[in-house]
Amino acid sequence: MAKTDKLHGVIAAAPTPITDALEPDLERFVTLCRWLLDNGCDALNICGTNGDATSLTVTQRKAVMSAAADALPGERIMCGTGAASVGDAVQLTEHAAALGFAGALLLPPFYYKGVPDDGIVRYFEPIVAATQNAPIDLYLYNFPQLSCVEYSVPLIERLIALFGGRIAGLKDSSGDLDYASSVASISSELAVFPSTEAVLLRARAGDFAGCISGSANITSAHCAKAYHDGDSAALDKAVAIRSLVTRLPPVPAMKAVLAARLNDPAIAAVLPPLAPLPDADARQLLADIAALESSD
To answer: Is the pTM of this model over 0.70?
Structure first.
């Protein structure tokens, strides 16, 4: 099993509820996060892709972070602080460090394509420097399908050589488990989190530190049984539910299910450029999940 003094296990990439004025709904956000921590999540990743982070302003992201710090256990929070602007990434990572979160998750700068490794190193230098007196663990967020910038194995090795223990791990949303295994093999101290629940038994065996998954918002109870108890049937159920969610636009689908589970339709709201899940699709998804969860 993974070490318990660091982030590990079932980590849901928590969504950010949104008001009609397109502002973060902080009260609903805190309620949702508490519900997730009470229903199988070992920790939460806030202000990530599923949390609409790249659609929020720096001020809005800081407000979400502060609300989390005021109401939730910081040792169970990883916060997305990456940005296209290095200045924004510095501000956000400094804020995460000051609030006492367990880790900061950093997308690479994602507008320019074909960025050289030297450019990524230059991006990290001021972030590391700005947080040297409050050395929050830094996690790399590899999502090349959206960022078009990959944290290659040689680049990760270079970042570790330059910044040492500040590079604590990686979340991999590429879907390439061979890549994730290669990163995990760099160092036993590097915590690697694939973005699918399917790896939880491998994580239990020590191959990975756990998973960071958007669908874990919905499957967390099954995931907890898989990771903590070694329950393969629970894992199969979690993976089957994930397949239902990911056949649809994942963020609207996830929010639609959470809105039903918390009996709060407002949770289904999404920020532009996303659009809410059509009612018919939401009803069918909920029916399909209910059928799966009631099956033996």
So the answer is: yes
